Amino acid sequence: MSRITQRLFGRPKAEKSAELTRPLRLATPGVASAPWVRPSEPPQLFAGCAQSIGLQRNHNEDGLFVLTSTLVSNKSAAPFGLYIVADGMGGHRHGEVASGAAVRVMASYVVRRLFTPLVTSNTDAHIEFIQEVMRQGVHDANRVILKEAPGGGTTLTAVLVLGDQLTIAHVGDSRAYTVSAKGELLALTNDHSLVRRLEELGQITAEEAAVHPQRNVLYRALGQGEPFDPDVSTSPVPENGYLLLCSDGLWGVVPEETILRLILSTPTPEQACQGMVDAANSAGGPDNITAILVRMPVQPA
Amino acid sequence: MDSNASSESSPQLRPGATLANRYLIQGAIGVGGMGAVYRARDLHFPNVVKLVAVKEMIIQASDLLVRKTIVRNFEREANLLATLDHRSISRIYDYFSLNERSYLVLEFINGKDLEAILNDSEGPLSEERVIGWAVELCDVLQYLHTHQPEPIIFRDMKPSNVMINTHDHVILIDFGIAKHFQGGQQRGTMIGTEGYSPPEQYRGEATPQADIYAMGATLHHLLTRRDPRLEPPFSFGERPIRKINPLVSPELEEVIVTALQYNPEDRFPTSLAMKEALLVAARKTGLLPRISRSGAATSDENIKPIWSFECGDEIRGSPAFQENIVYVGSYDHNLYALEAATGKFIWKYPTDAGIVSKPVVYENNVFFGSEDHRLHVVLVRNGKVNWTYFTNGPVRSSPHIAEGHIFIGSDDGFLHAVNTVTGRRAWQVEAGAPIRSTPLAGHESVYFGTEDGELFCVLFNGVIKWRFKARRAITSSPVFSQGLVYVGSMDATLYAIDAKTGWVTWRFRLGKASISTPCVMENRIFTGAADGIIYCVEANTAKEVWRFATQHQVTGSPLVYKDSLYCGSVDGYLYCLEHSTGRLRWKFKTQGPITGTPVASDDVVYIGSTDHRLYALMA
Fold this sequence. Notes:
The complex is a heterodimer.
Chain A lengths: L2 H4 L39 E7 L9 E11 L4 E13 L4 H27 L9 H19 L4 E2 L1 E7 L2 E7 L3 E5 L5 E3 L6 H7 L5 H6 L19 E6 L5 E5 L1 H4 L4 H10 L3 H14 L6 E7 L6
Antiparallel strand pairs in A: 1-11, 2-3, 3-4, 3-5, 5-6, 6-9, 7-8, 7-10, 10-11
Chain B lengths: L17 E2 L3 E9 L4 E7 L8 E8 L5 H19 L9 E7 L2 E7 L3 E3 H7 L6 H19 L16 E4 L4 E3 L35 H17 L16 H4 L5 H10 L11 H15 L21 E4 L9 E3 L2 E5 L4 E6 L5 E6 L9 E3 L2 E5 L4 E6 L5 E6 L9 E3 L2 E5 L4 E6 L5 E6 L9 E2 L3 E5 L4 E6 L4 E6 L9 E3 L2 E6 L3 E6 L5 E6 L9 E3 L2 E5 L4 E6 L5 E6 L9 E3 L2 E5 L4 E6 L5 E6 L9 E3 L2 E5 L4 E6 L1
Antiparallel strand pairs in B: 1-2, 2-3, 3-4, 4-6, 5-6, 7-8, 8-9, 10-41, 11-12, 12-13, 13-14, 15-16, 16-17, 17-18, 19-20, 20-21, 21-22, 23-24, 24-25, 25-26, 27-28, 28-29, 29-30, 31-32, 32-33, 33-34, 35-36, 36-37, 37-38, 39-40, 40-41
Helix pairs in contact in B: 3-4, 3-7, 4-6, 6-7
């Protein structure tokens, strides 16, 4: 017996355990409140998205990926969702190439390492650790960007919804939010922006941050060539609520109250996203705008 | 992390190629964001092998005018650097631009940079060595900062830019000349080496204080082994050096803290001043004794138990508390019931073998297992047997009661579900290996670990829902919080597993095997391991919050009670730590290893020891 367990179990002259004689026996013997939202069977994710180049840019440098799947089989029934937003930067189209690569590489990595094994339900397959897959996906995306778009960079915010948990991998200043069944909007991510950090340290106020000359400067993004670590965390899904991903072309332009109102009052996620994009353009559309909204499976009360 | 400073731009010049008709490339010695660095031989010296380092920078601008500007700026700076003469600065021999690339030809340094030295070592670097390098760095910075006619600010101090040659001397390489090649400011500009840069550098201000900050950041990284680029900027205060590496002297820590002050005027006014402070610290260090691993010693004599009770043999398991009575099993075969307030003996109940199991009190009965193969159910009021249930092997698991059933594992390889009223088995599940961990009953299922390393999820009707396999035994018991099940394994890993699907969300590497059951409190998981360390890990992100080292294995489980964490160690001590910070409040010494878990109620903590005693201490 290993030394660590010796102190707990038995004595040097420990008795032998008796043979197993009994046969195996099995047992005998246990938002969300909108009118258009009804519980469904099987539980499903319902996603929509919208994008706009905005009114002041002439390229779209935002990348986007939406994958929603529902599987019911003899082996399992669980919804699976993967949602990704990337906001590229850098001249000479490097921004587009960077955000596109980020989204493609991250999506294909997670699909290959988590989605495919889940669907094939191959119990012999080595089941990956979820947070590690998400982290590795981001690092792979970074490597590809350094190769295909040197000098370009991008943010990356990816959310995986699997069963009752959501796992986020995040770098930069695109954002993910949840909306609870009670209608509260809560940010899941921290912006990796310099002004946000200065605000945290109490060096500047929120008002000063909004007009700071370096308010667009990020201290962490993909494509840098320096060591970095994405923020990865897992938390329970907002039951009967929503998940929102967006680039700063939305959150930096449209107030959160407006975003929340649109989410709670629009029948479909796709229409809500379109509403958010329209709101950003009405406010001047200074940047590319991307929004992905996912309604969580509606549970019976 | 995989994405170290190497980019995927593969070296363009192959070994054997000759550059500019003069430099014979021998091979690439590094790949940076802007291009590669090569070792080459200068063919202008045919009679000797003169080695040089050739740094290649790719001009990434398509606009001709922008390209010309980049090259001109580069050449102007290279020209300036070529005039420098200091033993800690690698000489620049030549510079030129060719085919959309610019080249810097430098003295070749035989040695390793500080980043490589750190990566190639396992434990902390010695304070003497680090102070030695720091003093040389101050010298070279002083030389640069007092350069005439204009002070030169290095601006790119970081471990990978500091080479240590074969004589253990410092040589600065890379004067950030590559920044000319980084492209213009865009919306959402990213920044490079930012972990080491001071706040004012973002505003474009470059003063000698900026280099001093960066040097402090470099030293902080060397002594803590924590890369500042993986943390939010300017967050050194959140990672005090001596908290992470208690071997560092307080004097040296203070010098670095001064260098890392947010406001430039609060740092050292000159590199010379910092060097003086370092020398003072070095002189003092020779005189200071080492600080003990457990942090500030708290006098043990002041901690006295309220009472203690002696059994006939070791107490290896954990006590239970219910309605002013403490129940504990001993290896002397007996289960004891004692008055919680005084330790007065009420009754004892004999079994036929040692008891490791933690008792559970439910509806006037005490339930517990014994190595005599049985689950015993004893009346609370008088210690007389109510009924017993036989398994086919010693019972070392503790029972868990839910939904009117007792779930208990046995060394016979089965999880037994027994009706609390009738004493009849409802079902049993074959796990194929001894079960010593306490089962956990959740919303619809029961979770338990086996000595084969499996964690089972079984529905209340006995049907197996999923199984997870670790590499070694799971002797600790699982705990549940927010949809995830946390459990440690003898494979030295703490796992977080999705309760519904059995998918592992994350794993956290411990130093050694763990049989300690994790304790969950708010968003934190606490557990111990055979490396003697009590860990605190953040539940969502698997990041270590703090760790506390005891003198021997931690096999019992921690308990969080009010704002303290209590945990015993094989070193015989019961430790009381502040659970938010891991700071030691007090420790109490028993005469033998502690392998059980404490229980607490009404500001009293109860813990058993293999010194045969059960102790009651003020919480």
